[in-house]
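Progress report, Aim 2. The chain analyzed during this reporting quarter is listed below.
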Amino acid sequence: MQNGRAGVDPTDEWSSPVTLTVNGTTHEVTLDNRTTLLDALRERLGLTGSKKGCDHGQCGSCTVLLDGRRAKSCLLLAVTLDGRDVSTVEGLATGGELSPLQAAFIAQDAFQCGYCTPGQLCSARAMLDEVAAGWPSAVTADLTGPVELTDAEIRERMSGNLCRCAAYPHIVAAVREAAASG
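Predicted structure tokens for the chain:
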């Protein structure tokens, strides 16, 4: 592991057993207590969709869904998440079929290098769920009615995810398309 300890002795005081449900599958692993969720996903579970960008929670490339809510996996210690439900970009597709959101990203050419795309997709999935639940954002004009998914709403809600290639207009269009398709 990249945290300085190649092996983890399950009996030592620096490791803990953790049970995580990731994309619907329960995993019981013993992890060094310093292991982030991102490193556990990538290095222990082999789910390499989530990317390590800045390792400071600023870029969003590591965004996953934690109990259905957006979370920056590089900032979370995996041992604090025992029993929690994690969804990664690998879990967005169902039965080998792309989700409408993933299909919209392809149709709208909402990525270039693709590095930020897994985090963008997870963030967009959560954002669409927030809108459906009626949660306002900092730019929501009417706090008493349903949220209107304007381009400004999408930009505000996706602002925690950076794209080095500047595919932002295409990302907004993909989110808008996915929202329209239900």
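The mean pLDDT is 93. The two ends are 41 Å apart (CA to CA). These observations will guide the mutagenesis work planned for the next reporting period.
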